[in-house]
Design a protein that fits this description.
Radius of gyration: 20 Å
Strand content: 5-15%
CATH class: Alpha Beta
CATH superfamily: Aldolase class I
Shape: globular
Largest sheet: 8 strands, parallel
Distance between the termini: 45 Å
Low-confidence stretches: 7-11, 183-187
Number of strands: 12
Number of domains: 1
Mean pLDDT: 88
Helix content: 25-40%
Oligomer: single chain
Structural class: alpha/beta
Length: 379
Amino acid sequence: MSSVSCCASRAAFSRLEDFKSLAQKRLPSDVWEYYSFPSCSGFTLQENQRAFQRYRLLPRVLRDVSSVDTAATVLGSQLDMPVAISPTAHHSLAHPDGEKATAKGAASAHTAFVVSSFANYSLEDIAQSAPQGVRWFYLIPQNDPARTKELLRRAESAGYTAIWLTVDQPRFGFQNRPESRMESAEGTRLPNLTFDNAPSDVRSSEFSAYLSDSLKQPITWDDVVWLRKNTQLKIVLKGILSAEDAKEAVKVGVDGICVSNHGGRQLDGVPASIDALPDVVRAVDGKAEVYVDGGVRSGTDVLKALALGARCVFVGRPVLWGLACDGAEGVRQVLQLLKEQLNLAMAQAGCSRVSDIKPSLIVHESYYLHGRHCPGSLS
């Protein structure tokens, strides 16, 4: 991996797509495909981005936006922007420093990083790489509750302040992905998981053979209740798309819900995350924080998600692109670009603070095409 910054010229990297193009050139084809592949036809993956284009912003004018503040409080942590890093696996495939570099980049941008159980460095090593950073842990429950408890204790001891649980993956496996895409990638360790009957140095290219025997599937509401009883950390459920599930999540006492379709990598044909967001926001009714990920590619996308009720927006693939370009610095610059774009979009929309971003700022395109919706609605 070249140490020359991919962002030497800011003019050359004014879009996340610029990071994507360079990352694709730098990464081996099998790694690029692993990071990029969708489920089945790829409909949901494509919809995640297309759906943002169907929302229109209604800016307010003649407001004092000489100073714009993008700061936000998420899960009790003060962030410089309402944009943070989604959990994704195997960062060492993008850069030798893997999640340690991602943590440094997030800390430099003063935002949060959700560390995956499929990280290639231990929870402790990642925490030590950026001691001042805001870290949350994406938990994969194991069949043995004692092992899951051990992971919880490790996360607590290492300074992680929230536990994320993905709930949209009742069965492990990837649709429409030839296994060879990962088999040829350079192996990396998975130090945060214990696999039954697996060697202690199991590699990422081999781990799928041990998933079914070692990791709990499916996860149910009983597991969420168990988790609530076994940790004092805040709990976020990632992967909820329906209002009914959102209401149930509130009943069992979660602190946050991330509206997500797993980046279009699980069940194909589900709604785009941004389209599912308004119903979840209404169902939660302020009883938990609501976030969204999937398809965010600009600061304007972030603004739209905030106007639809998200407290924070999470990005996954773009961070991996930055990591592949220039390690921690590439991650920082991806996040910095989103912050700068959000700052400008807020000013142009008449918002000087995140709290100024209201539902009246956004309308679905169908209002103009068919007259079905009213400005300021969440639909």
